[in-house]
């Protein structure tokens, strides 16, 4: 409506303009009421949840004509739709969600669709492990709830611990936040199309950006952008590191992770080092219910299995292809699952083109060389398949490898009167530096 003045200085109105504006607004509101299935939410429409092809599609709303991706599949502003409440009943909860945002490790709003049993997503959902999708491993795990349900000796990211941690940071999270939102912006996340579990990742069935940096979280979902999409600048892929990145083999050993292509420099992989160390750094105190204490604070800039690079002599026992003694940065997902794994500390079942030859149930028991199952996917032991590393260590150029003058304190222990090798993790773990008083060496 436009205010005008006549020649006597009195206010008059331009009713033609007012009527036009009113008509346009009324038309928009009418369309929204008549066609609730039409979502108009910008970048949300490009997300995995907002996609009109495979986005959210709650089974109980199908009778109301809501299209895939419509906001009402997750949010119930009035609980009732058409005079009845769609399943599940009892909502809405925080953020007008149709179910309680978070209750426990296995009871969470996201799991109501991301499960293969009684999923509210029409047709159910299949979400495979990283070992399956990126590594080509024949894994039977097929949903996110299952991944977070691993218990000892298997492991999962603890959702309650995540909530505890993110609410201590000045990142905009609250006690009402969903722990899944620590890593994923649900309104922008991209990834594999729904139910793409029948095949491993390929350049045509995946997206680079399922995650968003926790420290950049905000209430403005447009500002809380994706990590790995190289927007606004091309610095969010593993190929950005000066030292370079070498992609591990996919199962079979002829193509590379994560998409079965011949790309090896990480230009097709999210910079998961920066992403993971947004929380797991050298200063953050992160409580672990599983371990019963705070996680180690680690300077990943100097870790050989992290942002740091090897010293060029770690191959004394041999390095498996496609790796070499050439200095390279590793991605966290080269060895670890993001959600849950059948091994301790989220260690993958498949690494560098092959399956681990045994389960890793503990890292600290004397005489336990289970960590060697992981090590020998990239390093060679005394004889192939033996998981025996005595010769490798005794013939190493470093005196510390055999314990220097105190082997009983470093590499060996006495059991039933005989010398015995200690567990690998006595010397090899993130943040480890071993010294015998005369020589010091970073061993991982």
Structural description of this entry:
By secondary structure, this protein is mostly loops. Among the domains are: 2-34; 149-174 and 196-355, no CATH class; 365-444, no CATH class. It has 8 helices and 14 strands. A two-stranded antiparallel sheet has the order 1-2. Strands 3-4 form a two-stranded antiparallel ribbon. The longest helix is centred in the N-terminal third of the chain and has 20 residues, at 15-34. The relative contact order is 0.08.
Distance between the termini: 70 Å
Give a count of the beta strands, DSSP E runs of length 2 or more: 14
Main beta-sheet strand count, sense and barrel state:
2 strands, antiparallel
Radius of gyration: 27 Å
Q: What is the approximate shape?
A: elongated
Order of strands side by side in the largest beta sheet? 1-2
Strand content: 5-15%
- On the 0 to 100 scale, the average pLDDT is 82
Order of helices and strands: EEHEEHHEHHEEEEEHHHEEEE
Secondary-structure class = little secondary structure
Tally the helices: what do you get? Answer: 8
Poorly predicted segments: 1-15, 17-40, 401-408
Helix content: 10-25%
Notable characteristics:
disordered N terminus, little secondary structure, 444 residues, two-stranded antiparallel ribbon
What's the arrangement of secondary structure elements?
Elements: E1 2-5, E2 11-14, H1 15-34, E3 102-104, E4 107-108, H2 130-133, H3 144-147, E5 155-156, H4 159-166, H5 272-276, E6 287-288, E7 293-294, E8 340-341, E9 350-351, E10 354-355, H6 371-375, H7 390-394, H8 407-410, E11 412-415, E12 418-421, E13 433-435, E14 440-442
Antiparallel strand pairs: 1-2, 3-4, 5-8, 6-7, 9-10, 11-12, 13-14
């Amino acid at each position: 409506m436009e205010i005008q003045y006549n020649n006597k200085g009195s206010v008059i109105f331009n009713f033609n303009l007012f009527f036009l504006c009113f008509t346009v607004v009324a038309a928009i509101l009418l369309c929204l009421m008549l066609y609730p299935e039409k979502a108009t939410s910008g970048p949300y429409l490009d997300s995995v949840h907002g996609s009109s092809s495979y986005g959210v599609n709650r089974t109980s709303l199908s009778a109301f004509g809501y299209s895939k991706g419509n906001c009402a599949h997750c949010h119930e502003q009035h609980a009732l739709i058409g005079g009845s409440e769609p399943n599940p009943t009892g909502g809405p909860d925080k953020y007008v969600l149709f179910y309680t945002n978070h209750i426990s490790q296995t009871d969470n709003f996201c799991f109501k669709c991301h499960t293969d049993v009684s999923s509210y997503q029409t047709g159910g959902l299949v979400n495979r492990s990283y070992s399956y999708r990126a590594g080509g491993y024949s894994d039977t795990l097929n949903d996110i709830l299952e991944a977070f349900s691993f218990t000892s000796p298997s492991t999962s990211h603890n959702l309650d611990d995540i909530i505890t941690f993110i609410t201590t940071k000045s990142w905009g999270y609250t006690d009402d936040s969903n722990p899944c939102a620590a890593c994923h912006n649900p309104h922008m996340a991209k990834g594999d199309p729904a139910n793409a579990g029948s095949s491993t990742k390929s350049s045509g069935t995946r997206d680079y950006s399922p995650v968003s940096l926790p420290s950049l979280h905000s209430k403005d979902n447009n500002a809380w952008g994706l990590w790995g999409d190289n927007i606004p600048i091309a610095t969010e892929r593993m190929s950005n590191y000066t030292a370079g990145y070498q992609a591990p083999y996919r199962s079979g050993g002829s193509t590379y992770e994560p998409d079965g292509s011949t790309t090896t420099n990480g230009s097709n992989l999210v910079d998961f080092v920066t992403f993971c160390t947004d929380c797991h750094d050298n200063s953050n105190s992160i409580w672990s219910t599983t371990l019963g204490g705070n996680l180690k604070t680690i300077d990943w800039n100097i870790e050989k299995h992290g942002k740091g690079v090897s010293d060029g002599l770690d191959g004394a026992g041999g390095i498996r292809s496609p790796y070499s003694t050439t200095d390279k940065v590793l991605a966290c997902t080269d060895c670890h699952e993001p959600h849950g794994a059948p091994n301790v500390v989220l260690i993958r079942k498949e690494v560098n083109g092959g399956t681990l030859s045994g389960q890793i149930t503990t890292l600290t028991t004397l005489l336990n060389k289970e960590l060697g199952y992981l090590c020998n996917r990239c390093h060679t032991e005394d004889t192939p398949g033996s998981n025996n590393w005595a010769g490798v260590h005794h013939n190493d150029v470093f005196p510390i490898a055999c314990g220097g003058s105190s082997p009983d304190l470093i590499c060996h222990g006495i059991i039933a009167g005989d010398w015995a090798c200690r567990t690998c993790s006595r010397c090899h773990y993130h943040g480890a530096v071993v010294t015998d008083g005369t020589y010091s060496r970073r061993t991982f």
